[in-house]
Amino acid sequence: MANSAGSKKRARQAVKRRAHNASQRSMVRTYVKKVVKQIEAKNYDEASKALTTAQPVIDGMARKGIISKNKASRTMSRLSARVKALKAA
Fold first, then answer.
1. Rounded CA separation 56/62 (Å)
2. How far apart are CA 14 and CA 8, in angstroms?
3. Separation of alpha carbons 86 and 25, rounded Å
4. 33-85 per-position pLDDT tens digit
5. N or C end of the chain: which has fewer CB within 10 A?
6. Closest Cα to residue 25, out of 57, 56, 51, 55?
């Protein structure tokens, strides 16, 4: 339990930041789901468009520390491979 004024403020800030970060992570997942939905619909043009839109969002969240750099790279790599395979099919 926070006792000093400074630690109480830190606890309040932590709650606020946690809520903001959760919102940002949710946004990244939504962008990823949009790409996956187009892949499953076998719609190459829309999937590649959605991937192009998702890439800066994913990279930005990695830069801000919302998701790890490796997770961002892994996600982009997997999505890119799936979209590329869709074109070949």
1. 10
2. 10
3. 27
4. 999 999 999 999 999 999 999 999 999 999 999 999 999 999 999 999 999 99
5. N
6. 57
Phi, psi torsion values for 3, nearest 5 degrees: -110, -50
Give the residue from 59, 61, 50 showing the smallest Cα distance to 26. Answer: 61
Q: What's the one-letter identity of residue 7?
A: S
Q: What does the DSSP 8-state code read for residue 68?
A: -
Two tokens at 16?
Answer: 């606020």
Q: What is the pLDDT of residues 2-46, one digit of tens each?
A: 789 999 999 999 999 999 999 999 999 999 999 999 999 999 999
First to last CA, the chain: 58
- Going by C-alpha positions, the residue among 74, 63, 80 that lies closest to residue 24 is 63
